[in-house]
Amino acid sequence: MELNKELNKTTTDSKGNVVTKIRENNKPAFWFLMPSLLILTLFTFYPMIMTIYNSFFATNIRGESAKFVGLNNYFDIFKDPLFLKSLAGTLVYVVLFALVTIVLGVVLARLATMKLRRIGWFQTAFAGTMGTSAAAASILWLFLFNPSVGIVSFALKAMGVSKTNLLVDPTGAMIVIVLASVWMALGFAFLILLSAFQSVPPEYYEVADIAGWSQFKQTLKITVPMISPTLFFLFVVEIIDGFKMFAQIDLITGGGPNNATNFLAYKIYQDAFVFHNFGTASAESIVLTVIIALATWIQFHFTERKVYYA
Amino acid sequence: MSIRLANISKAFGNTKVLSNISVEIEPGEFFVMVGPSGSGKSTLLRMIAGLASVTEGRIYFNERDVTDLPSKDRKLAMVFQNYALLPFMNVAQNVRFGLENQDLSDDEKTERVEWALNLVHMADLSDRKPKELSGGQQQRVSLARALATKAPVVLMDEPLSNLDAQLRTEMREEIARLHREIGMTLIYVTHDQVEAMTMGDRILVLNDEKIQQLGTPLDLYNHPANEFVAKFIGSPEMNLLPITVNDEGDRFSIGDAFWTDNAFVLPFDLPAGSYHLGIRPEKLVPVSIANPDTITAKVKSLQQLGNDTLIFCDYDGQSLVSRVPEQFTVAVGAELNLLLPASADEWHLFNVDDGEQIVAAPEEGAATYGA
C-alpha cells in the first residue's frame, strides 16, 4: 500500500516534469511557426471565416453584409436550376478529368520507364506541361479548336465531320475542357508516377520476365499494386484540383455554351464578381468545400483499404 | 541440362566487363561463380538468364543456341539477393506467381506450390505476407518459387548476402541439400569465397574481365593458378613474399636481392631470379627455437578465434599472418620464430611480372597447369 502510494507519487511527479519539459521545449517552436501562421491567418483563415459569415447574409453591391438571412442562401441555391446543372456538370467533369489524367499518366510513365531510344527527350516533353501557365495553355487550346484557324477543325473537316466547332456544342465544350485540363495536369501526374514506377525494384519484373508474364500483365499485376499509394494520392489531388478548376473555363468557354461548362468554381466567381451576389457565392463556396471534403473522406474511407503501403 | 558459354564478351558502352569467357557446365552440377564486386559474375549470370544481352559469343543449353531467346523460353528459374517477393502477395501466392504462365491446371499449380513449400519447410506459413517473415524465411520462399517451376536450371545471384552469418551457414546447408535432392543444374554467384568453397562442385573465379581459374574447391586452394586466386581463396589471405634465388639455384633470400648471410635453403632447385613466394597461414608455423629455416618476425596483433589463433606479424616491412590450430598466446611486440615450409607442396611460386603460377616441381606432383 505504502509502496503503491510512493510509486504513484513518483509517476505523478515525473509526469509533471515531462509536461514542463515539453512546454519549455516548445517555446522556440512557436517562433518558428509564426511566419506561416501570420500568412495563413491573413490569406486563408480570415477569408474562410468571412465566407462562412457572409453565407448567412444578403450582401449589397460592395460585398458588405446587409441583412441576416439565416440559411436562406443555401435553400435558394439548391432551388436554382443553374446551380444544380453546374453541380452535375462539375461532378461529370471531375470524374472524367481525374480518371483520364491518371490512366494517361500511368501509360506515359510506363512508356518512359522502358528502355527506348531518346526516352530522356520524351520524359522532358511529358513533364513539360508542368511549366506552362494555365492562361497560356488555355489560349493554346482555344486556338487548336478555333473554328476558322484551329488545326482540330481542319482535321475534323478533312475527316468529313460536319460539326467542326466543338466549342458551340455542350458535349464538345465539355470534351475540350476535359482535354485541356488533362493536358495541363498530366505533367505533374507523369512526374509523380514516373518516380513511383522507378521505385519498384527491377527484380520483380525480372522474375515475371523469367516466368513469362506479358508487359501488360506485369503492369497490371506488379506495377499498379506497388504504386497504389501514389495512385491513391494522385486521385485525391486530381479530384480536388478538378473541383477548383477555373482558368480554362474563363479563357476557353466562358462557362458556355448554354452553361454546359459553367462549373462550380466558375459559377462562384461569376455570382460574386460579375453579379455581385456575395451571399449566394459564399454559400456556394461552402457547398463546394463540403463536397471536396466529402469526396476526400469517401476516398480515404473506401479506397485506402485497398492500398498497399510498404 | 548442360550449359555451354562460347567466347562470351560483354561491354556496357565502352566499358568492357567480360571478355572471351568459355565454360562448360555439366548437367546437375553445382557451379559457383565467384569474384570481387565488379568482376562481372552477376552480369554473366544475367546473360545466362536472358536478362542481359550478350555483346559477343553464344550461349548453348543442351547444345541448343539460346543466345537470342527471351528468358521465358529458356526453362530456368532465378533466385535474387533481395528475394524479390511481391509484398502484397502472401507466401503461397508468391510461389504461384512463378507458375502463372506454365501449362498447368489450377490443381496442379496448387500441388506444386505445396510441394515446393514443403521442400523448404515453409508450408505452415503459406498465408503470411513477406514482411511478416524473417530474412531467412523470405529467402526460403524465394527458393520455393524457383523450385516450384521444376526448371532444369536454377540461377542464384548472391542469395545469402542479405542474411546474417548464422542464417547464412544454415541456408548454405539448405541449398546444398535441395540441390542433392532435386539434382537440377545450379549456377550460383557469390562474392564470398567461403560459400564458394563449401558449396560448389566446381568454382569459376572471375576478375578483371577474365576467368582466373576454373576447378574444384580443393584444386583452387591447393594449386591457385595465379596470385589473384591465391589471395582470393582462403581466409586469412595467403602470405606473399618477394624472394630472390642465387645463381646456383639452391638458396634464396627474402627481398629483392640475394644476401649470403641471410639466405635459406630451397626445398627444390629453381633457376636464379626473383619470385613471389606464397605460403598459406597454416603452413607458416611458429616454433620456439630459431634454426636456419626460420625467420624472426615481430608480432603486431593476435586474433583468438577459439579453435584457431591468427597471429599477424611484421617481417622486414612485410605483413605476414600465421594460423595456429589451437589457443596460442604470445605478447604483442614480441619476436616470433616462424618456420618456412620445407615441402614443395606447401610452396606456391608466382611470376613477379604477371602473377602467374610457376610450376616449380612437377616431379613432386604439385601443379600441372598454370604458366
From TrEMBL, chain A:
Highest taxon listed in the record's lineage: Bacteria
Family annotation (InterPro entries): ABC_transporter_permease, MetI-like, MetI-like_sf
Keyword tags: Cell membrane, Membrane, Transmembrane, Transmembrane helix, Transport
CC annotations in GO: plasma membrane
Residue ranges occupied by any ABC transmembrane type-1 domain in the UniProt entry: 87-299
One Pfam family named in its UniProt record: BPD_transp_1
GO BP term (any one): transmembrane transport
Transmembrane regions: 29-49, 91-112, 124-144, 175-197, 222-240
Localization annotation: Cell membrane
Membrane association type: Multi-pass membrane protein
PROSITE patterns: ABC_TM1 (PS50928)
Family assignment from sequence similarity: Belongs to the binding-protein-dependent transport system permease family.
Record's protein name: Glycerol-3-phosphate ABC transporter permease
Annotated organism of origin: Lacticaseibacillus chiayiensis
Automatic annotation (TrEMBL), chain B:
Tree of life domain: Bacteria
MF terms in GO: ABC-type transporter activity; ATP binding; ATP hydrolysis activity
Signal peptide: none
Any one Gene Ontology cellular component term annotated for this protein: ATP-binding cassette (ABC) transporter complex, substrate-binding subunit-containing
Keyword vocabulary terms for this entry: ATP-binding, Cell membrane, Membrane, Nucleotide-binding, Translocase, Transport
Pfam families per UniProt: ABC_tran, TOBE_2
Database matches in SMART domains: AAA (SM00382)
Protein name (Swiss-Prot/TrEMBL): ABC transporter ATP-binding protein
Originating organism: Lacticaseibacillus chiayiensis
